[in-house]
């Protein structure tokens, strides 16, 4: 394990979520030079996920690539390069030697951290930051297959005990009372607000099957009341949780990213309304905003890990195998 990659060389950023793996070849100035994606083999086990990550590296690899940064679901230990804890969204993910396993498969040095924390870091530095983060408290939520998050204070990302800081999906949520969460507890925000949670709630209310959130969103667009209600409830739950956190932390900026908010204005309107209703008077003008890095925030954050965190080296180097 050595220090981070020096400036100049392009690196590969990988965003590993429960549904999709996205890869990008990223220049030192943050320009995306190439990109690729494939579905996450989430039910096939950790070794299959590592194999899929290696395939994504090969898909965007160039001989100039100096390292790989992985922004991964779960509680990640960047120093040890391991997944210290995870929900069952990716089967058998907890305990995986992420950095060593990927370095062995690709022949490239690897840095890793939690996916949402990596994405949130792009709000604090790099081409999309505004340079005014000193003294700023940031709350970053990513609502997708799960509900992840990150918190930064005075421009510094919080890791907390065991690296667990920012796991917003496991806040208690009144809207999720009695519902099982992927972490094994009940009543957590993720159970009602993540894409699968919204989809499951629609099925409970309507009695109709739905294979994914996009199906529910399409039915809501056609005026189906149960679909609309499920989406609005999930959005309100996120808005209420973030509003409460904004009060508790004195947030200057609240960012909401991930795939779920992209389903449309109905979701965002409900989230923003619920958020505003929770705010104390000094914060009344605060509103959630989308990530500055757009849909590339996670892969850009992953690439940046190679310049800020320790690298875990393979025994041999060269072209990805």
- Given as residue ranges, the uncertain stretches (5+ residues, pLDDT < 50) are none
Q: Assembly type of the shown chains?
A: single chain
Residue-averaged pLDDT: 91
CA gyration radius, whole angstroms: 19 Å
Helix content: 25-40%
Q: Give the biggest beta sheet.
A: 5 strands, mixed
Shape: globular
Structural class from helices and strands? alpha/beta
Helix count? Answer: 9
Number of extended strands: 11
Order of helices and strands: EEEHEEEHEHEEEHHHHEHH
What does this structure look like?
There is one protein chain. The chain is α/β, with parallel strands linked by helices and 321 residues long. It is 33% helix and 18% strand. It has helices at 46-60, 98-106, 115-121, 190-193, 195-206, 213-221, 225-249, 265-278, 297-308; strands spanning 11-16, 20-26, 32-39, 68-72, 75-77, 82-85, 110-114, 137-143, 147-153, 156-157, 253-257. It has a five-stranded mixed β-sheet. α1 (46-60) crosses α2. The longest helix is centred in the last third of the chain and has 25 residues, at 225-249. The radius of gyration is 19 Å and the shape is globular. The mean pLDDT is 91.
Give a short overview.
The chain has 321 residues and is an alpha/beta fold. Helices cover 33% and strands 18% of the residues. The strands form 3 sheets. The protein has a 5-stranded mixed beta sheet with strand order 3-2-1-4-7. The protein has a 4-stranded mixed beta sheet with strand order 10-9-8-11, sandwiched between helices. A two-stranded antiparallel sheet has the order 5-6.
């Amino acid at each position: 394990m050595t220090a981070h990659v020096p400036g100049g060389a392009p690196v590969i950023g990988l965003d590993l979520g429960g549904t999709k793996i996205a890869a990008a070849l990223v220049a030192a100035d943050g320009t995306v030079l190439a990109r690729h994606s494939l579905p996450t083999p989430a039910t096939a086990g950790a070794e299959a996920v590592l194999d899929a990550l290696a395939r994504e590296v090969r898909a965007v690899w160039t001989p100039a690539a100096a390292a790989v940064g992985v922004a991964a679901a779960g509680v990640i230990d960047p120093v040890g390069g391991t997944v210290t804890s995870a929900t069952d969204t990716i089967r058998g993910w907890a305990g995986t030697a992420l950095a060593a396993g990927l370095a062995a498969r690709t022949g490239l040095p690897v840095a890793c951290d939690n996916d949402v924390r990596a994405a949130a870091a792009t709000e604090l530095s790099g081409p999309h930051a505004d340079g005014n983060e000193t003294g700023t408290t940031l709350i970053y939520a990513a609502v997708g297959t799960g509900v992840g998050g990150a918190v930064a204070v005075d421009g510094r990302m919080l890791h907390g005990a065991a690296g667990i800081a920012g796991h917003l999906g496991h806040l208690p949520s009144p809207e999720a009372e009695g519902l099982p969460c992927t972490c094994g507890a009940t009543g957590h925000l993720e159970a009602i607000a993540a894409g699968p949670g919204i989809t499951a709630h629609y099925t409970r209310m309507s009695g109709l099957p739905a294979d994914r959130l996009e199906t529910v969103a399409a039915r809501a667009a056609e005026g189906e009341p149960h679909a609309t209600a499920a989406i609005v409830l999930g959005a309100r739950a996120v808005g209420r949780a973030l509003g409460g956190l904004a009060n508790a932390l004195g947030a200057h900026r609240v960012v909401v990213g991930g795939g779920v908010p992209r389903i449309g204005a109905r979701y965002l309107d409900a989230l923003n309304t619920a958020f505003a209703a929770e705010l104390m008077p000094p914060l009344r003008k605060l509103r959630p905003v989308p990530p500055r890095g757009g849909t590339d925030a996670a892969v850009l954050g992953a690439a940046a890990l190679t310049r800020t965190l320790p690298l875990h080296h393979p025994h041999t180097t060269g072209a990805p195998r």
